Amino acid sequence: MATTAAPAGGARNGAGPEWGGFEENIQMWQAGKRQASRAFSLYANIDILRPYFDVEPAQVRSRLLESMIPIKMVNFPQKIAGELYGPLMLVFTLVAILLHGMKTSDTIIREGTLMGTAIGTCFGYWLGVSSFIYFLAYLCNAQITMLQMLALLGYGLFGHCIVLFITYNIHLHALFYLFWLLLGGLSTLRMVAVLVSRTVGPTQRLLLCGTLAALHMLFLLYLHFAYHKVVEGILDTLEGPNIPPMQRVPRDIPAALPAARLPATVLNATAKAVAVTLQSH
């Protein structure tokens, strides 16, 4: 009696579509899990930075005013704000003031070069000098953290912003030197007093505070006198010497002119003559 042979792997063939759909569901579930993990990691990273920017506007306003008032009590460590919102906004304000000063001068604006240079200068000073002073503070055994140094130097830029905003609109060297000594000196004395209260030893205090005061005051001089010239030199190096903003070249007038029946050669000659006259003036 003949028997019909069952097809090899029949069970697998029968379950093929169901197994494929199950694999697709697993892949979709794994992809969703990865996206959720990335979103959670991003939120966790943002949540880590939240304490450094969680500050009330009234607190920022009071700290701005305090940054211009030197302290007298240096016998015990003075408190430093552990937030970065105010310093970061002051750095961006300084960037905007530098751009305003460049636009009011005769510097030719070319794409985003001025923006990048201003951001690099301000953030480079803030981060670079803070790191350098923190390194010196570590060598001098001063009681200050990197976050506190960033906040201290950031609020110290408030005086620079006021001085540059006024002197970019009122071009008087005597007025600048007055504000440089008054406002810039007050903000520098505030930072120096805080560092003195957190440093032990006259030699360490002189080294640390003298370096910070010199860098902070010289940076304001650089922004007022040398920054524009340095930026113009960088622009000339990167993009060549200054070129006229517009060079008008006379174009040929098409031959078909329904409104005017004059020959095209006469019109072209007239247009070129007018262009030469304008360029000569």
Automatic annotation (TrEMBL):
Q: Name one GO cellular component term.
A: Golgi apparatus
InterPro entries, per this entry?
Answer: tRNA_Mod/Golgi_Maint (IPR051521)
Q: Per UniProt, which keywords does this protein have? A: Cell membrane, Cytoplasm, Differentiation, Glycoprotein, Golgi apparatus, Membrane, Transmembrane, Transmembrane helix
Q: Coiled-coil intervals in this record?
A: none
Q: Which residues cross the membrane?
A: 84-102, 114-137, 149-168, 174-194, 206-227
Its localization reads:
Cell membrane; Cytoplasm; Golgi apparatus, cis-Golgi network membrane
Q: Name one GO biological process term.
A: cell differentiation
Which domain of life does the protein's organism represent?
A: Eukaryota
Membrane topology classification: Multi-pass membrane protein
Q: What does this protein do?
A: Involved in the maintenance of the Golgi structure. May play a role in hematopoiesis.
Q: Which family does it belong to?
A: Belongs to the YIP1 family.
Question: What protein am I looking at?
Answer: Protein YIPF3
Native source organism of the sequence: Equus asinus (Donkey)
Instruction: Read off the lineage from the record.
Output: Eukaryota, Metazoa, Chordata, Craniata, Vertebrata
Task: Identify the gene encoding this protein.
Answer: YIPF3
